[in-house]
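no rush on this but wanted to send it before i forget. theres a chain ive been looking at and ive put its sequence and its fold in token form underneath. i want to understand how the tokens follow from the sequence so walk me through it. thanks a lot i owe you, the record is right below:
>
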Amino acid sequence: MSSKPTPPDGLVIVDKPAGFTSHDVVAKMRGIAGTRRVGHAGTLDPMATGVLVLGVERATKLLGHLALTEKEYLGTVRLGQNTVTDDAEGEITSAADASGVTREAIDAAVAKLTGDIMQVPSKVSAIKINGVRSYKRAREGEDFDIPARPVTVSSFQVHDVRGEVAEDGTPVLDLVVSVVCSSGTYIRALARDLGADLGVGGHLTALRRTRVGPYGLDAARSLDRLQEKLEIMPVAEAAAAAFPRWDVDARRARLLTNGVRLEMPDEYAGRGPVAVFGPADRFLALVEAQRGKAKSLAVFG
């Protein structure tokens, strides 16, 4: 009787196709990798494409920490129309002639949405309000407010402005933009708020995530390609790319994996998760400095 092959162990960087939910991609990867132990680090809307980081087997323990890293996007914002979802998936709720909006006005409005800002997520987002998903409340016609949350938009750039005429005859402006931001930032909310500030409304018509933490499109593979050949980044390599590295000797490696809270060098204070490696480049654990000692977040060694 042949034994089942051991499922792979590591990260898979997927170039998510349009029309797939993040859960659809996870379900597909479960079939490809032959294990149910698959998760993702941060969702992408069905309309969006690009980098989606999946963890397989033990690498799922990294995902919660990877989800907090910086993200980068390339998108198109349409000025002149609002939609119910703040993106092209929802029906248009209002329209206004945007042809008179100047580049100077656009740049000034973009500047207000750059840096540390307070953002109200879209009502059709997955944010929970009193334990219930916002999109569920919205679908049921409920009237509710989502509190603003602090997010960081470290870069918001407009690369091109194109005058267009929408299907309903409204003169609109399509802006090609790039955004670098913290986890939890909604790009469609930026589009909505940009349009609101300019007085013509706005929504997102295209979005491609080009980077999650250190993982970019150059490392991403299509689902079709992964179906032919599963390319997986070993857990140790993934951790070394994403987190500060701390190398320890054999004695401290043994103590750490036995649950002893080691003294940590000062250089790691306040740096968030740190990847600990022992002799022979063995990945041992993710830890965090707490009062000068290593608090274990996830053990691998």
Remarks:
- The longest helix spans residues 22-33.
